[in-house]
Design a protein that fits this description.
602 residues; alpha/beta; Jelly Rolls; Immunoglobulin-like; TIM Barrel; 3 domains; eight-stranded parallel beta sheet; six-stranded antiparallel beta sheet; 7 helices
Length: 602
C-alpha cells in the first residue's frame, strides 16, 4: 500500500435554525475502509489513513517472517470475515503485519507520528527495520514517533503482535477461546484505525476540558512538549468567537467564561468548537456545557444533569459488530446504530466491558446519548458457579481475598489499574460520558472500594458504579442490582442512586439449541407485549415505590449466540419503535412524578 496523502473533515457548523449555535454532524468519507478522521476530540489537519490491505503472517516466533501468508484488511482482526484472513492465532503464536507508505511532499512539519486506535494485546512496531515503540493492553490508543527512522522514499512499517485471551494479566472483556452463552469470539491484532500525522518539533500532547454548567465556566489544562511556549485558546459558536485567552502555558489552569453557551443534554446536545494554537501547532476540539451529579429528593437519590433530576434509561451495549467482530463495517454503521437507539426513546447506553473508537463517543455526543463506561475486566478465569448462581442469589464475597477473586497475580492488579487510569485519560473529554463502572459481577474484582477511591481522584466530575451486579461493597454513587429470571424486586438503600443495571434479556423463540437468552417467547407479538409489561408493570411501579432512578435493559442487539437484543444482529428492530418510545415516555413521566424532571434538561 502506497499512501500519497489525504484529509478528512470531522466537524461542520450549521445554523440549522437554532439561534446560530454550533451544530455538529457526522460526516462520512466516500468509499469503504473506515477513512473518517478518527480523533475528533483532539484533531489536526495532518492526517493519512493507513487502513487497507497489509501483508500478514502467523508464526511461532516474534522474529520477522521469511514469507507472508497473504493479505489482511486493516483494521479488522484476523479472526473476522471482513479481514479477508479469517485466521485465529493461538496464545503461543505471533501475528505479523507489514505495509509500505510514501509521505507526500511537505507532509513532515518536524515530527511524524504513527497512531493506533487499538491493538490487542501486546505489540512492537518497526519502521524500516528499526524498533520505534510498542504497547501493552488491547483497548486503548497509542502513538509512536517515526521521524528518525524515515527515509526519503518508500518506508516499510511492520507490527508484531502477541495475544492471549486467557491471560490473567491483561483486560480481555468478553472475549473467549470457547465462545458460547454470554462469551464471544476472541479477537487479536489491529482492530481500530491506523494513521499518520505530522506535528511541529514542539507540539501539544493533550488537553483536558472541565466544563461547569452551574457557573458557566470552562477550565482548560494543556499538556505540551515544552512548557515554556505560550498558547492561545478560542471557543467558537460557528464562526463567532465567544471566549478567548492567550499567554496560556502547559500545566496551568485557564478559566474561560462560556456562560453564553447553551447547556448540553440528551434533548439539546449543543456542542462548541475549541481551537488551540501552540507555536506552530494547531489543534481543534469541542466541548458541551454540562455537569453531572446526584441529588436527594424525598429521602432518595437520583442522577442530575446540570442540576436537574434525570432518569437514565439505557441499554447494555456489547460492542460486537457482526462480520467485523470488534470493528464495524463502516463508521456510518456505528452512527446509524446509535441513531436507532434514540429513535426508541432511550437516552443512555452502558458500554459493556469494551472501549470503542473515539468516533463512537463523538456520535453519542452529537446525538445526545448518555454513556456509562465499563472498565475492561480481566484476571483469572471466572468461577462458573458464581456466574450461574449470581442471577438467583446475592453473593457477598471478600474482594480483598485476591486469590479467590482471580486477582492473586500482583502484575494483574497493576495492569488493571494502569488500563483503568488510561481509559479515564483517553475518554475524559467525551461530553456524554457520565459514569464509570470499575467492576462487573465480580469478574476480576478486587478492592472495589479502594479502586473506586483511586479512580475518583483522577475524575471527580462523573459518577461511579463501583461493583455492578451482586458484589456490592457499599462504595460509589450507585446501588447497582442485576435481576434476571425473576420479577424486579429491589429496595432503595437511601444512600446511593438505586439502579437496575442489567435486567430483561428477552428473546423470541429460536430453534437453535445453542442460542442464549434469559427468557423466550413464542411469537413476536408475545415478545413485544412482554417487553411492554416489563416496563409498565415492573419498572414504573419500582420508580414510584422505591425511587428507582436508572435501568439498563439487556441488551441492544443480538451478539453471536446471544439472541436477547432489541435489535437483531443486522440492526433490524424486533419491536415497533413507536410502541417502545411510548412505553419509555411512561417511564420518564413516572420518574418526573417522584423526582421532578425526567429525560429533559428542563
Amino acid at each position: 500500500m502506497t499512501v500519497t496523502g489525504g484529509k478528512a473533515a470531522i466537524l461542520r457548523g450549521d445554523n440549522g435554525g437554532r439561534g446560530g449555535n454550533m451544530i455538529f454532524e457526522a460526516e462520512f468519507s466516500d468509499g469503504e475502509g473506515l477513512k473518517e478522521y478518527p480523533r475528533p476530540q483532539f484533531a489536526r489537519d495532518s492526517y493519512i489513513s493507513l487502513n487497507g490491505e497489509w501483508d500478514y503472517a502467523v508464526t511461532s516466533s516474534p522474529e520477522r517472517p521469511t514469507r507472508y501468508d497473504g493479505r489482511i484488511k486493516v483494521p479488522y482482526s484476523p479472526e473476522s470475515p471482513l479481514s479477508g484472513a479469517q485466521r485465529a492465532p493461538s496464545a503461543s503464536e505471533y501475528l505479523h503485519y507489514r505495509t509500505f507508505f510514501t509521505l507526500p511532499e511537505g507532509f513532515n512539519r518536524g515530527r511524524v507520528m504513527l497512531n493506533f486506535g487499538a491493538v490487542d494485546q501486546r505489540c512492537t512496531v518497526y519502521c524500516n527495520g528499526a524498533e520505534v515503540g510498542g504497547h501493552e493492553g488491547g483497548y486503548l490508543p497509542f502513538s509512536v514517533e517515526l521521524t528518525k527512522s524515515l527515509n526519503g522514499g518508500e518506508n516499510e512499517l511492520c507490527v508484531v503482535v502477541a495475544d492471549d485471551a486467557a491471560s490473567d494479566v491483561y483486560g480481555r472483556g468478553k472475549q473467549s477461546y470457547s465462545a458460547g452463552g454470554i462469551w464471544y469470539t476472541a479477537i487479536s491484532g489491529i482492530w481500530q484505525t491506523v494513521w499518520l500525522e505530522s506535528v511541529p518539533k514542539d507540539f501539544l500532547r493533550g488537553v483536558k476540558l472541565l466544563p461547569d454548567a452551574q457557573s458557566g465556566r470552562l477550565e482548560v489544562i494543556l499538556d505540551a512538549s515544552d512548557a515554556g511556549i505560550p498558547a492561545e485558546i478560542a471557543v467558537l459558536d460557528g464562526d463567532e468567537r465567544i471566549a478567548f485567552r492567550e499567554g496560556i502555558y502547559a500545566g496551568q489552569s485557564c478559566i474561560l467564561d462560556v456562560s453564553r453557551c447553551q447547556k448540553w443534554s440528551p434533548d439539546n446536545p449543543q456542542l462548541y468548537r475549541i481551537v488551540i494554537t501552540y507555536g506552530q501547532d494547531r489543534v481543534r476540539s469541542y466541548f458541551g456545557l454540562r455537569t453531572f451529579g446526584t441529588a436527594e429528593r424525598g429521602g432518595r437519590r437520583c442522577f442530575t444533569l446540570n442540576g436537574n433530576p434525570i432518569y437514565h434509561n439505557g441499554l447494555l451495549d456489547q460492542g460486537y459488530w457482526g462480520e467485523g467482530i470488534y470493528t464495524p463495517a463502516s463508521n456510518r454503521e456505528m452512527y446509524d446504530c446509535l441513531k436507532a437507539v434514540r429513535g426508541l426513546g432511550f437516552n443512555m447506553l452502558r458500554k459493556h466491558i469494551k472501549v470503542e473508537p473515539l468516533l463512537w463517543y463523538y456520535y453519542c455526543d452529537i446525538l445526545g446519548i448518555l454513556v456509562w463506561q465499563d472498565m475492561v475486566n480481566g484476571g483469572a478465569p471466572y468461577s462458573k458457579l458464581r456466574i450461574n448462581l449470581g442471577p438467583f442469589i446475592d453473593l457477598h464475597l471478600d474482594d480483598m481475598n485476591f486469590k479467590s477473586m482471580g486477582r492473586d497475580n500482583p502484575r494483574s492488579r497493576r495492569q488493571y489499574m494502569a488500563e483503568a487510569e488510561d481509559t479515564i485519560k483517553t475518554l475524559f473529554n467525551c461530553v456524554s460520558l457520565c459514569l464509570w463502572t470499575p467492576f462487573n459481577e465480580g469478574w476480576g474484582q478486587f478492592d472495589a472500594v479502594g479502586v473506586w477511591r483511586a479512580l475518583r481522584e483522577l475524575d471527580p466530575t462523573r459518577q461511579y458504579d463501583h461493583a455492578s451486579g451482586w458484589q456490592d461493597k457499599g462504595g460509589g454513587d450507585v446501588y447497582s442490582r442485576h435481576v434476571y429470571f425473576r420479577k424486579l424486586r429491589v429496595k432503595n438503600d437511601k444512600k446511593r442512586v438505586l439502579a437496575v443495571t442489567e435486567f430483561g434479556g428477552y428473546a423470541c423463540s429460536s430453534g437453535d439449541k445453542k442460542a442464549f437468552s434469559y427468557r423466550r417467547f413464542s411469537t413476536s407479538a408475545e415478545y413485544a407485549a412482554a417487553l411492554e409489561r416489563l416496563y409498565l408493570k415492573e419498572v414504573v411501579p419500582l420508580i414510584r415505590s422505591q425511587g428507582l432512578a436508572a435501568t439498563v435493559y439487556t441488551q441492544l442487539c443480538d451478539v453471536e449466540q446471544e439472541v436477547n437484543g432489541l435489535f437483531a444482529s443486522d440492526m433490524k428492530c424486533k419491536v415497533t419503535p413507536e410502541r417502545l418510545s411510548k412505553v419509555n415516555d411512561e417511564v420518564y413521566a413516572a420518574f418526573g412524578e417522584v423526582f421532578g424532571g425526567g429525560k429533559k434538561d428542563d
